Task: structure prediction
Amino acid sequence: MPPEPFFSGPGLDRADALRGYPDKIAELTRRGDARELAWRDGIPAIAEGGRLEWQEVGDAALFLGFDGEAPRFSALAEPATQPFAVMPLLAQMHEADAPLFAAAMSLARWHSRHRFCANCGQATEIVRGGWSRSCPACSAEHFPRVDPVVIMLAEYDGKLLLGRQSHWPEGRYSALAGFVEVGESVEAAVVREVKEEAGIDVSNVRYVASQPWPFPSSLMIACHAEASTADLKIDTTELEDARWFTRDEVQGAVDGAEDATFGAPPRTAIARTLLERWLGA
Ligand SMILES: [Zn+2]
Result:
């Protein structure tokens, strides 16, 4: 069985039942085994060996949960001083810490971007250990948002449809993807995105796996679908190219073969999981 998608492991015990009790959370910050996540340049700090860095609890604005018995906290994220490249950063991260990185990253960034009530405009307050914000003026409660994205393989006659964007590394092809719109099911979003980007109809949409993607708060929903034709009509404003690949070509790319027809997405991308599971099926 191929590995689980990066970022999607168990992570911490999030201890939801404690979030409504600020006194109990304050007590946890004083425990000897309590730690606070270190941040550097606007992201959780990554030490040698790809593990997250921890320090003494100072600013415990966010209660992340328990690592075993040990309470874990985070300060609010300071804005990045410079833009960072996501993929090289992920390449050096230990997969065991990836789920916690994703949770802390999305949560802290959400706070920095949602300080005011979307309903009445008043400044809101952090409540529930940092897992929501409450408005003192109109009592609205605001929760960290998750943005669903569908990412899919379309199959026709034993071949897979993959595309590439112009800014990707040379030769890389990957699954098509797009945001789910309001009032839309996952299945409908898959059908629409493939039609928009590649001009073909798909059906029999099946869910395969999911992955949080904390840049800033996406949930990648990976699917497989069957195409009714191989005749593509590519939307070049979205894709530089899209084409069909045989099982042998996909296998060669995933193996990193020297004569591979294309470059596969990295292990941190759920598109890679989709390709590996298709090969294994
Ligand atoms: Zn309000």
User: Anything to note?
Assistant: The CA atoms of residues 1 and 61 lie 39 Å apart.
